[in-house]
Amino acid sequence: MNFAQPTSSAHLDVAAIATALGELSTRFDVRVLAECDSSNARLMALAEAGAPAGSVVVAERQLAGRGRRGNSWFSSPDASLTFSLLWRFSPQVQLTGLSLAVGVALARALERLGIAGIALKWPNDVLLQGGKLAGVLIELVPGARPSAAVIGVGINLLLPPELPAEIRQNAAALANAGITLPAPATLLARLLAELHGVLHSFAAEGFSAWHAAWQERHAYAGQVVRLLADHAAPLEGRCLGVDGDGALLLETASGIQRIISGEVSLRKS
Ligand code: BTN
Cβ atoms within 10 A of the Cβ of 223, count? Predict the structure, then answer.
């Protein structure tokens, strides 16, 4: 494990992360930044310079955190756990479904902490009792061979007062999960350990190994939803789940539609 801590005000304890990871600590190269633009952006630069799989950037505060569909992602110390993990895959691995497998890993880690009410919303949200607890933003390293993915994860630890009302109304936080939370370093280690296992199997078998686990946690199974895209009319249908490639299956008036683009947003009708 790399103990690089470029700014002295960072207070996530990297030694504690190493201890909590145990033997797995040799598989990760963790940097903790007290502040940066975006942990995904920082890790992307490291990836382009040849950083190995298992490189992690943890940001206690992001000034330009990136979310899906060009949104920004709010994160501040104590209120969120914000990190990015680099993973490399051989060229034949089909990366559709990666964000779903990552969701399964996060869900399993949280469930193992004793948290009930975790569900997954296609393509990459983790919900707690219906509210958005965590988001995942996967960015592929341009031109990387073998392919490389920067897997960005933001988890709400609590909902700070300054959080805009429109975000707060659909959000959830671990502070309200009904358990005594472990220290952030332990929480991070639990998440990384689960991601390590899931990503290894994803690299070998693709999403199909995690298909059933995703379906079991599908937040909108059998429910009528609307799919919103930027330049198309909303599509309404009953959510059948995902197929073995991670595409969303929607039963609409004109038959079953297979949705592969993640650049959409899903709402309950
Ligand atoms: C979403 O829009 O739901 C995805 C949000 C992903 C946010 C995380 S926070 C860590 C990583 N760094 C970023 O800039 N974004 C991701």
Answer: 11
Residue that the structure tokens 């490291």 belong to: 46
pTM higher than 0.90:
yes
Is 238 in the active site? no
Rounded Cα distance between 39 and 29, Å, is 14
Q: 2.60.40.10, 2.30.30.100, 3.90.550.10, 3.40.50.150: which CATH number matches 224-268?
A: 2.30.30.100
Question: CA-CA distance, 211 to 240, in Å (whole number)?
Answer: 13
pLDDT tens-digit map of 88-118: 999 889 998 999 999 999 999 999 999 999 9
What is the spatial distance between Cα 92 and Cα 205, in angstroms, rounded to a whole number?
A: 11
Residue 13 CB neighbour total at 10 angstroms: 17
Look up the CATH architecture of domain 3-216.
2-Layer Sandwich (3.30)
Which of 12, 36, 40 has most ligand 1 atoms within 8 Å of CB, for mutation?
A: 40
- How far away, in angstroms, is 255 Cα from ligand 1 center? 34
